[in-house]
Write a structure and sequence with these properties.
With 350 residues, the chain is an alpha/beta fold. The chain has 17 helices and 13 strands. α7 crosses α8.
C-alpha cells in the first residue's frame, strides 16, 4: 500500500477579524453564505481530510470559490489554518519556526504557478537554476542541473533567452524545470496550465505524465477542468463551497457519483474517452484462449472500435501480460450512460 507523504486533518480556514469564534459555528454546519451575511466572515475550508500518497498525483478541483487554491497554500504555509493539522513526511508543519519553515520550502516543496512567476531580468538558465542558487549551491553544479532539466522539458537551446522572448507554453516549461531543479519530493501546481491554449495545455499534461512515470514525485495539482483532472489524477478531490463533496480514484467517482452535484459535474464528460477497460471489466469466467485481448488501461473508445459494432463481443483483459478480467460489450454500452440517467429511464419504463 502506498504511504501518505502529506496528511491534512480536520482543517478549517475562516477569514475574518474573529475567525476563532466562528469555528464552533462552522463545525455546527453553518453555511458559507450565512456566515458571511450574519458575521462578515468567509468560510474558506471546512473539515478537510486528505491523505496525499507518496509518488502519486493528487488533483484538487472545483469551481471558482470552492477553496482549492486556499487549500494548496496550507501545504507550504503561505496560509495558516484556523484549526486543524498538516503533516509533511511525518512533520507537523504548523509547529515549525521561521527557519525550519524556510528549510521545508527550499528542500521538500516546489511550486509551479499559473502566471509562470519567472524573473524577467534573468535568463531561462538562471530562472531554472534559481532553487539551487537560493540554497547557495555551487554555481557550476547549479548550471549543470538546470541545463539537464531544461533538456528534459524540451528547452535545450533556449538557455540564454529571457522570459519575454518565450511563448506561454515555453515559459511554463521553464517553471516546471525550475520546480524539478529544486529536487523536492513535493510539487505543488496551482492552476499551472489554465493560462495556456488547449493544444499546448494538452502537451504539458502529457509532459507531466511522462516525467511522473520516471520521477514518481508527490504532486498536488489544482484545476477547475474536469477533463484535465481525469487525465492526470491518481487521486481526485472535488470541493464545493470549501468542503469535500467526494474524493477517490477518478474512475470510481465517474462511475459512482456520491450525490446530484457530482452527477451534474461529471454528466457531460466523454465517458468513452475517459473510462478505462479495467474499471468495468468483470472477473475471469472463461479460459478460452481464442478471445481477443485488450489492455486494461485502454479506454472504452478503443474497445468500441475493436468490437466493430458487435454488441455481444467479449474480450480477454490483460495487464502486464497477465489475464486479469473479461470485458463484455454489453457492459461497455451500459457504462457509457451515466447511472442517474439509467435509473431515471428504468423508473419511467417503456
Amino acid at each position: 500500500m502506498t504511504e501518505s507523504f502529506v496528511s491534512i486533518r480536520n482543517l478549517y480556514k475562516i477569514f475574518g477579524t474573529n475567525s476563532m469564534a466562528m469555528i464552533s459555528r462552522a463545525k455546527a454546519g453553518m453555511h458559507k453564505a450565512d456566515m458571511l451575511k450574519e458575521f462578515g466572515h468567509v468560510l474558506g475550508l471546512r473539515d478537510i481530510n486528505i491523505e496525499i500518497k507518496k509518488g502519486e498525483i493528487t488533483v484538487i478541483m472545483g469551481l471558482s470559490g470552492s477553496g482549492k487554491s486556499t487549500l494548496i497554500r496550507h501545504l507550504n504555509r503561505l496560509i495558516d489554518p484556523t484549526s486543524g493539522e498538516v503533516f509533511v513526511n511525518g512533520t507537523d508543519i504548523l509547529k515549525l519556526d521561521r527557519r525550519q519553515l524556510l528549510h521545508l520550502r527550499r528542500t521538500q516543496m516546489s511550486m509551479v504557478f499559473q502566471k509562470f512567476a519567472l524573473l524577467p531580468h534573468e535568463t531561462v538558465l538562471r530562472n531554472a537554476g534559481m532553487p539551487c542558487s537560493v540554497r547557495g549551491e555551487d554555481g557550476k553544479k547549479t548550471e549543470e542541473t538546470a541545463r539537464n532539466w531544461l533538456h528534459r522539458v524540451g528547452l535545450s537551446g533556449a538557455e540564454a533567452l529571457y522570459p519575454h522572448q518565450l511563448s506561454g507554453g515555453m515559459q511554463q516549461r521553464v517553471g516546471l524545470a525550475r520546480a524539478l531543479t529544486s529536487n523536492s519530493e513535493v510539487m505543488l501546481m496551482d492552476e499551472a496550465y489554465s493560462a495556456l491554449d488547449p493544444l499546448i495545455r494538452s502537451s504539458m499534461q502529457d509532459l507531466l505524465l511522462e516525467l511522473q512515470n520516471d520521477l514518481q514525485k508527490t504532486v498536488v495539482f489544482i484545476t477547475h477542468d474536469l477533463d484535465e483532472a481525469l487525465k492526470i489524477a491518481d487521486h481526485l478531490v472535488i470541493l464545493k463551497d470549501g468542503e469535500i463533496v467526494q474524493q477517490g480514484e477518478p474512475q470510481y467517482i465517474l462511475l459512482n457519483p456520491a450525490d446530484p452535484y457530482i452527477e451534474d459535474f461529471v454528466g457531460d464528460i466523454n465517458r468513452a474517452r475517459v473510462l478505462r477497460v479495467r474499471s468495468i471489466m468483470t472477473e475471469v469466467t472463461t479460459d478460452d484462449d481464442g478471445l481477443e485481448i485488450l489492455d486494461g488501461d485502454e479506454n472504452l473508445e478503443l474497445a468500441i472500435l475493436r468490437a466493430s459494432g458487435e454488441a455481444d463481443k467479449t474480450f480477454a483483459v490483460h495487464s502486464d501480460g497477465m489475464r486479469v478480467g473479461t470485458l463484455r460489450m454489453t457492459e461497455v454500452l451500459k457504462a457509457l450512460v451515466p447511472a442517474a440517467r439509467r435509473s431515471a429511464t428504468t423508473k419511467e419504463g417503456p
